[in-house]
Design brief:
- By secondary structure, the protein is α+β, with helices and mostly antiparallel strands.
- It has one domain (3-80).
- The protein is 16% helix and 37% strand.
- It has one helix at 43-56, and strands at 3-10, 21-23, 27-32, 59-60, 63-64, 67-72, 75-80.
- The strands form 2 sheets. It has a 5-stranded antiparallel sheet with strand order 2-3-1-7-6, covered by helices on one side.
Length: 90
């Protein structure tokens, strides 16, 4: 399933992960199924953000996100196109 990066925040030391996904010990990352929560208009900034996220190896369980830029209407989003489906709620 395709998901968009919605928010990325550096994690403070000694604080457990708070988002639904995580990058090992460095950042909390939130995803969205809709485009629009984290858009950039500058390709250079979008590429820098993408490069930073690739360095921290975003993962969910055993899945490591293969992130890429998606351009639409002059804005750029960072997307994982092969993200696992979230577990069903009981």
């Amino acid at each position: 399933m395709k998901v968009y990066i919605a928010c990325v925040r550096p994690r403070e030391k000694d604080v457990p992960p708070s988002g639904p996904a995580w990058a090992p010990d460095t950042h909390d990352v939130w995803f969205s199924s809709k485009r629009g929560d984290f858009l950039m208009e500058n390709i250079e900034q979008a590429q820098r953000d993408l490069d930073m996220l690739r360095i921290v190896h975003i993962r969910v369980g055993e899945h490591y996100c293969q992130l890429e830029l998606e351009e639409e209407d002059g804005t750029f989003a960072i997307v994982c196109k092969e993200h696992p489906e979230p577990p069903a709620k009981p």
